[in-house]
User: Fold this.
Amino acid sequence: MTFDDGPDPGWTPRILDVLAEEGAGATFFVLAPAASEHPELIARAVDEGHEVALHAERHVRHTEMDHDAIAADAEAGLARLSELGAEPARWRTPWGVQTQATRNVACALGLELVGWTHDSRDWSGEPAETMLGRCTAGLAGGSIVLMHDGLGPGATREGCGETVRLTRDLIVQARRLGLEALSLERR
Assistant:
């Protein structure tokens, strides 16, 4: 399970509550400025055994940035997260958009670039039941589900309530299939 665009002071704690109640793990690809604004959420995620990874300093498609801008963004984000005690090993770029410059920067910084196999499309505001069907079709060991614990650019929903519901439902359904929800570092 992976979450992008947080941490959000309203929604991330609710996601963390569900994960704790279900004994599940996740990777949070965080926006560094939001992490700086809510260091308690980063600390809680780490304390509860989740992985904190880099999403971005600025949520900009890498096709709109040159190599130096991508490197500066990643380095600034990593520096902020390091100040909070997080040392990311993984990076999911905004919208999952990667360029050759992205791959070069990731290699130089020792970061694994991560995409997803199942997109919940939770940003669209669909009900949890609809998203669950999309996320469980073909779900198998090693699957990576994309969800969002924050309202990032392009979101057409008002909040993350359906994602909170989806998180619990997805954990339950995965267990029915003999799978466990884990962070990427524990896969």
Observations:
- The domain at 2-186 is CATH 3.20.20.370 (TIM Barrel).
